[in-house]
Design goal:
Layout: E1 2-3, E2 6-7, E3 14-20, E4 25-32, H1 35-51, H2 58-74, H3 76-87, H4 91-109, E5 119-120, E6 127-135, E7 138-142, H5 148-153, H6 156-161, E8 165-169, H7 176-188, E9 195-197, H8 202-210, E10 216-220, H9 223-236, E11 240-243, E12 249-252, H10 258-270, E13 282-286, H11 287-301, H12 322-337, E14 341-344, E15 363-366, H13 373-376, E16 383-389, H14 392-399, E17 404-405, E18 407-411, H15 415-424, E19 429-432, E20 447-448, E21 451-452, H16 457-463, E22 465-473
Parallel strand pairs: 7-8, 7-10, 8-9, 10-11, 12-13, 12-18, 13-16, 15-16, 18-19
Antiparallel strand pairs: 1-2, 3-4, 5-6, 6-22, 11-21, 14-15, 17-20
Length: 486
């Protein structure tokens, strides 16, 4: 682990193996942090915040962040190999995510010296009122196993730019790339204690949310764990940013550019093996083009190349770990039992060359009823539910008919319809005639059960700063309400 600028195996020196989901063999050994290790990381972050980081001008913080971005770019390919080995995501995706991470660091480096307040005119002209943006102090960053570095890039650059020090806890299923990232932190020259990483099981994450000394939490993961994180934070009255799950609708209208829409639907669910919170797992298709869309989707899905995630020719990798593989298979079996019409896939890969990996065939169900569990519960896997609709009003009702509200896609060439749908979606993100697009400048976050708060963009910076109001009376008058009046 990386605590106070030092590499450590932890106070208990306990470790656990992490498995390559393609070969199902142990490929790395990861430290299991103790509660004392977590306390030590929090104390290191507090010390660095009080002594160095909060006092460092934004321009100098920006220089360190820019240097870190340069190193990430230089090491993008080896870092991508580590992450693909750890979680089974194809190398073409992880490689792109490393370059994206560097871009996000550069973006927030540009904001590190631009945390501005404002002046506020009051009724009394002899009192100057203004606001300051200040860091919280020590921030806990908890990330998931599906895209460790990309998810960290959604949090860490903004936290650093705002002047916070951090303790990071990656998933126990995919910690290796985050630990490797700390080597770049060392090389970039960050002061000890500004960035700390502890690894281990759920007890480590729970300790980070419950121990004194953490001033804010940013969590990415499942809604169930998110509720527990929010409850723990509420007990200590500290703020939380939650980026949770999704059951996002991807809506194709009859007037859509169908070739583009079909590519968008495929990428929306089968990219990242469907293991992404923004997966377009519910495809709503207007009746007039329903049969055409389903036929072409099935034809394309059956041609998706499964294989070694490190092979550039592979188009879809594995489930990231055994528990997730079993959850996906159970969800597919439940959809079959509930009467969904299986059109493609439907289980683990049967190709003998893939027998050692946690592969799941790209799966498509058609004629799915909106109330079926496959259309309501986040599966986090390569499982697409295709749902027919007749009218715009019906599409809106189906799209908004879940407890989650992270993202939505709309495919239409009617600009008026697009604007109506944008306003009607109960989601934090809406894509029109595209899907799964991300940008450092664009804020991201959900509604309803998908969490609250924003990452990326200017709004992401504000999530890691607290507003202070200041009043300065320069009148020289005695404003003591108990003073004698003459």
């Amino acid at each position: 682990m990386f605590i106070n600028g030092t590499w450590t195996s932890g106070s208990d020196r306990q470790r656990f193996d992490t498995l390559n989901p393609y070969t199902q063999t142990a490929w790395a050994s990861i430290p299991q942090a103790s509660i004392e290790d977590v306390r030590g990381a929090i104390a290191a972050a507090r010390g660095a915040f009080d002594s160095v980081w909060r006092r460092m001008p934004g321009l100098k913080r920006a220089a360190l962040m820019t240097r870190l971005a340069e190193i990430i770019e230089r090491e993008a390919q080896p870092l991508a190999v580590i992450e693909s080995t750890d979680n089974g995501k194809v190398i073409r995706e992880t490689s792109a995510q490393m370059i994206y991470a560097a871009r996000v660091f550069r973006y927030f480096a540009g904001l590190a010296d631009k945390l501005r307040g404002s002046t506020i005119p009051l009724d009394n002209p002899d009192i100057l009122d203004f606001t300051l943006r200040e860091p919280y102090g020590v921030v806990a960053l908890i990330t998931a196993w599906n895209s460790p570095i990309a998810l960290l890039a959604n949090k860490l650059p903004a936290a650093l730019a705002a002047g916070n020090c951090v303790v990071i806890k990656p998933s126990e299923h995919a910690s290796a790339s985050t630990l490797e990232f700390c080597r770049y932190v060392e090389e970039a020259g960050f002061p000890p204690g500004v960035i700390n990483v502890v690894t281990g099981d759920a007890k480590v994450g729970a300790a980070m949310t419950e121990l004194e000394g953490v001033d804010k939490i940013s969590f990415t993961g499942s809604p169930g764990v998110g509720r527990r994180v929010a409850t723990a934070a509420a007990q200590r009255l500290i703020p939380v940013t939650l980026e949770l799950g999704g059951k996002s609708p991807n809506i194709i209208f009859g007037d859509a550019d169908l070739p583009r829409a079909i590519v968008g639907a495929l990428a929306g669910i089968f990219a990242a093996t469907g293991q992404t919170c923004i997966a377009g797992s519910r495809l709503l298709v207007q009746r007039s083009v329903y049969d055409t869309v389903v036929t072409q989707l099935v034809e394309r899905a059956n041609k998706i190349v499964l294989g070694n995630p490190l092979d550039a020719a592979t188009e879809m990798g594995t489930a990231a770990n055994r528990p997730q593989f079993e959850r996906i298979i159970a969800a597919i079996d439940e959809a079959k039992a509930q009467g969904a019409n299986l059109k493609a896939g439907g289980g683990g890969a049967t190709d003998p060359t893939l027998k050692n990996g946690l592969f799941i065939k790209p799966t498509i169900f058609s004629d799915v009823h909106p109330d079926m569990s496959v259309a309501q519960s986040e599966i986090f896997g390569p499982v697409l539910s295709v749902i027919p609709f007749e009218s715009e009003e019906e599409a809106i009702a189906i799209a908004n008919g879940t407890k989650l509200g992270l993202a939505a896609g709309v495919w239409t060439q009617d600009i008026s319809r697009a604007m109506r749908m944008i306003r009607a979606m109960d989601s934090g993100v809406v894509w029109v005639n595209t899907y799964r697009m991300v940008s450092a400048q664009a804020p991201f976050g959900g509604r309803k059960g998908s969490g609250y708060g924003k990452e990326r963009g200017d709004e992401g910076l504000l999530e890691f700063s607290v507003l202070k109001n200041v009043m300065v009376d320069f009148s020289g008058e005695d404003r003591d309400p108990f003073a004698a009046k003459t």
